[in-house]
Amino acid sequence: MYDQKAYEWGMNKCIIREIAEYGNAQKAIVGEENVYDFTIGNPSMPTPAEVDQTIRDILSDTPSLAIHSYTSAAGDYSARKAIAEDLNHRFSAGVRPEDLMLTCGAAPALTAILGGLAVENSEVILIAPFFTEYVPYVEGVGARVKIVGPDLPDFQIPMAQLEEAITERTVAVLVNSPNNPSGVVYTKETLEKLAALLTEKGKQFGHPIYIVADEPYRELVYGGAEATFIPNVYPNTIVCYSYSKSLSLPGERLGYVYVPSQAADSREIYAAISGAARAKGHICAPSLWQRVISRCAHLRPDLESYDKNRSLLYESLKAMGYEMPKPEGAFYLFIKAPGGDALAFAQRAMEENLLLVPGDDFGCPGYLRVCYCVKYETIERSLPIFKQLIENRA
Ligand code: PLP
Questions:
Q1: Helix (H, G, I), strand (E, B), or coil: what is residue 357?
Q2: DSSP code of 156?
Q3: Burial class (CB in 10 A: 0-12, 13-18, 19+), 275
Q4: pLDDT exceeding 70 applies to what percent of the chain?
Q5: Exposure check for the chain: N or C terminus, fewer CB within 10 A?
Q6: Pocket flag, ligand 1, residue 156 (CB < 6 Å)
Q7: Which one-letter DSSP state was computed for residue 337?
Q8: Which class is domain 70-296?
Q9: Closest C-alpha residue for ligand 1 atom 2
Q10: 176 CB less than 6 Å from ligand 1?
């Protein structure tokens, strides 16, 4: 006997990883430089040198038993204090260390938040396009997924559709800005409208409807765009963050949950999230990395290489006739499939060793995600293939 749903998630692997694995096999055959792999969001910007130096410092100034010991489940107090100070410095947010729980990245932070919020028959609303893994995360805590969007052509939030989708069973709307896969940053105006809608609906149904703000790309914004810190617009926001993208540490697994003290039922929600994490086997986030962050929470990524990649790809594809929302954040472009069929287009691109992810699993058929955390030369060398593909569209 086994769980049928879990079996399906195990068998139907994440499409991004499937195509990336195909790419790795192809690289072994035709050479790495001849595969244009735009699939996986593995940061290409080096981890800041200060992070590496901090590890060396910790190894030399801290007894090894202390470095490698368990911390409290919520995380080392000095790391939470450093994160709180940094958030308060940037967003005047009133964050306290006790409002934070350190996790092994954004993914377990999300499953803990969803697990803490979901009651029987709960619904969680996703706004298309969305990170593919949200579906198993929501269903895995026993809640039902409801999808709204996309809001074409700007890929903001389709308010009227969202309003219709909210019911008395809605516990949360999952918001991801800057967005994977669209690269769009939700404007402050969009978020204020969302806040007004959720406030009204919360009153109507007699319980808060939380925003779960998944913000691993918070610092990855370009050309003067700003990612609004959502708790400042809507207090019933529970934040999920990760250092995977901002400090290029995806394999190290460090992130956090932030439950604002001004959120409704804040302490109870915090306890429920901690309990949901515990039930999924959370013990503590990696202790060395907690120590690193206690000294590095103020660091910001150097965005120059991503911004150069973004400009080259966006300007070139636009000039060729590709359509896409303006990419202002994260490291993704979301192009409309020439000819309309994203799966067929991805297949034709694959034959040329150009690897793109069709938008279907992001809740957005007819689009393709292009992940530009790659070498600049990879983009340069891929452009003739993009051109040929749009010229010979089906
Ligand atoms: N949320 C979004 C939108 C992501 O793109 C990712 C990873 O790509 C995650 C969450 C998971 O991040 P982490 O590596 O911190 O678990």
A1: strand
A2: S
A3: middle
A4: 100
A5: N
A6: no
A7: P
A8: alpha beta
A9: 131
A10: yes
**pLDDT score recorded for residue 352:** 95
- How does pLDDT run across 143-177, given as a tens digit for each residue? 999 999 999 999 999 999 999 999 999 999 999 99
Q: List the chain domain ranges.
A: 4-47+302-391, 70-296
Whether the pLDDT of residue 10 is over 90: the answer is no
Residue with tokens 């007004």: 196
Sheet holding 332-336, edge to edge: 332-336, 367-371, 357-358
Give, in order, the Cα–Cα distances in Å from 166 to each of 116, 137, 244: 19, 19, 32
Instruction: Note the pLDDT of residue 216.
Output: 98
Buried b (16+ CB within 10 A) or exposed e, 17-33: eebbebbeebeeeeeee
Q: How far is the CA of 206 from the centre of ligand 1 (A)?
A: 32
CB of 285 shorter than 6 A to ligand 1: no
Looking up tokens 């090894």 gives 64
- Our answer on whether the CB atom of 250 is closer than 6 Å to any ligand 1 atom is yes
Q: What's the whole-number mean pLDDT along residues 271-288? A: 98
Task: Give the mutation target among 180, 186, 243 for probing the ligand 1 site: most ligand atoms within 8 A of CB.
Answer: 180
- The 10s digit of each residue's pLDDT in 324-365 is 999 999 999 999 999 999 999 999 999 999 999 999 999 999
Indicate whether residue 136 lines ligand 1 (CB < 6 A).
Answer: no
Q: Is 229 left (phi over 0), alpha (psi -120 to 50) or beta?
A: beta
Contact call for residues 173 and 149 (beta carbons, < 8 A): no
Query: Does residue 362's CB lie within 6 angstroms of at least one atom of ligand 1?
Result: no
CATH code reported for the domain at 4-47+302-391:
3.90.1150.10
pTM: 0.96
Kindly report, residue by residue over 200-256, the tens digit of the pLDDT: 999 999 999 999 999 999 999 999 999 999 999 999 999 999 999 999 999 999 999
